[in-house]
Amino acid sequence: MTHNSIVSDLDVRLYVSGFSRAKGKEYAIKFLCILFFPLLPLIFYWKPSWWAHAAFRKCALKTATHIFVKRGEIEELVPVQIIKRDGSLSNAESRHYFSQDKMMLVDDEESHAESRLFKFGAIRFFWNESENNFMRQVALDSGHSIQELVSSFASGLSADERHLRLSRHGANTIEIEVQSYFKLLVEEVLNPFYIFQIFSIVLWGIEEYYYYAGAILVITIVSITISLYKTKKQSQDLHDMVECSSIVERFSRDIGQWISVDSRELVPGDLVKVQAGPVQADMLFINGTAIVNEAMLTGESAPEQKEPPTGISGFYSPEKHRRHTLYAGTNVIQARAPNSQPVCTAVVIRTGFYTAKGDLVRSILFPSPVGFGFYEDAIKFIGILALLALVGDVYSTWLFLLRGDNIKKAILRVLDLITVVVPPSLPAAMTVGTVYSQSRLKKEQIYCISPGRINVAGKIKVCCFDKTGTLTEDGLHFHAVLRNGSSSTKLTLA
């Protein structure tokens, strides 16, 4: 498949293709799905790319109503949406929208009336006419000088400007979906291994292997139940930990005074009053001084002092100008206004998932794809067993036909051979082992955000532990470990 590539994160690339609806193909494929239910729907569920090519028509990204996104092993077909003039969203497929206007990614260009976008991994990607591609949403942290930010937003935003920015950036929230047990159950059961297990249990029941089938069924139900409970609880705990809002004071240009609003209403460009308490968005410090606890993001226990970027020129960067930036998720211990100003102020730069806190949460929800040899070897192992089963099936079928045995008996014996060669209880056994390992880790106050990686933990040979900012310092890369008896670790600077 030919893709256009776009950058999603610093180290992860998304591969995208454009598709539009073809009603004739779509109706034909849906009819085949009904005719060959449930086999064909399951295949399309496991292979979204096949569904996209079968039911849609491939087209240019500029005219697409749906975008097929591939990120590592993750594949998804997402709809293209349009921000209308009134700030509302609509699907591109119902509008047949074709934009000829230049799409700018910086928010100081507010002349565009409508914008095309799609959402993936909690991030919005907007169509850029000059690049002829979708580009990652950016806020005021890109392409703006410090002087420009200070001078342009020192008096806040008008209601119209705020409404437009809210439609482009969304609410200042980090929303974590806590899926229902039913949805989690469907996603778990539709795993290919569990489908094969259900097939095996039904087959054993037909052959009157009731005790063995019942035992596997009980083990499967128990393992799935425990797995669903653990997954649901971890999602709920993360949701409760991240969910946070408070009342902040924002300056309104329309009425010329400070007003109290919910922090979820903040947008890039808002001028807010800096006070003691949690920081709800990434902000550029404008005036005054502040003492901030950044332990949640950096792991450093020492408070940091923030001050305005007086006398500093050049383009603004939240990473480069850390001393002048307040980060979401941190806590202001003390804020002191200068003698010439009544309050400390800051300009909102990034909101929601685009903040430093949002990046941290996204790394948990959507971790960078990592290839493990364990999974590749497991697939190869299952593939080899399936090939052996196929050879055995062909030979057994020939023998049954040669002997003139009963057709029903021959089919059952051939299918039974598959369940003998490929172990149907494998997923249940691995789930039980993973759940038990999670319980043991939790007793030691170790929380695993990716339970599937527990299976490969036995292959780990070297672990390096240190607080954030040392081994993870920019430009510092791990080089080697000295053997026992040595007093230091080799590190090299890039």
* Number of H- or I-type helical stretches: 13
How large is the share of residues in beta strands?
Answer: 15-25%
State the helicity in percent bands.
Answer: 25-40%
Chain-averaged pLDDT = 80
**Which class of secondary structure composition applies to the elements?**
alpha+beta
Computed CA radius of gyration, to the nearest angstrom: 28 Å
- What's the overall geometry? elongated
- Characterize the biggest β-sheet: 5 strands, antiparallel
End-to-end Cα distance: 36 Å
Poorly predicted runs of 5 or more residues: 96-112, 488-494
User: What's the β-strand tally?
Assistant: 22
Short characterization:
This protein has 494 residues and is α+β, with helices and mostly antiparallel strands. The protein has 13 helices and 22 strands.
Features:
494 residues, alpha+beta, five-stranded antiparallel β-sheet, 13 helices, 21% strand, elongated, disordered C terminus
Topology, element by element:
Blueprint lengths: L3 E4 L5 E9 L1 H13 L3 H8 L1 H8 E4 L6 E6 L2 E6 L1 E3 L5 E3 L23 E6 L2 E6 L4 E4 L9 H7 L6 H11 L11 H9 L2 H15 L3 H33 L4 E6 L4 E6 L8 E3 L3 E2 L3 E6 L1 E5 L1 H4 L5 E3 L18 E2 L4 E6 L8 E6 L5 H10 L7 H31 L3 H15 L4 H18 L32 E3 L12 E3 L1
Antiparallel strand pairs: 1-2, 2-3, 2-4, 4-5, 6-7, 6-8, 8-9, 9-10, 11-12, 13-20, 14-19, 15-18, 15-20, 16-17, 16-19, 21-22
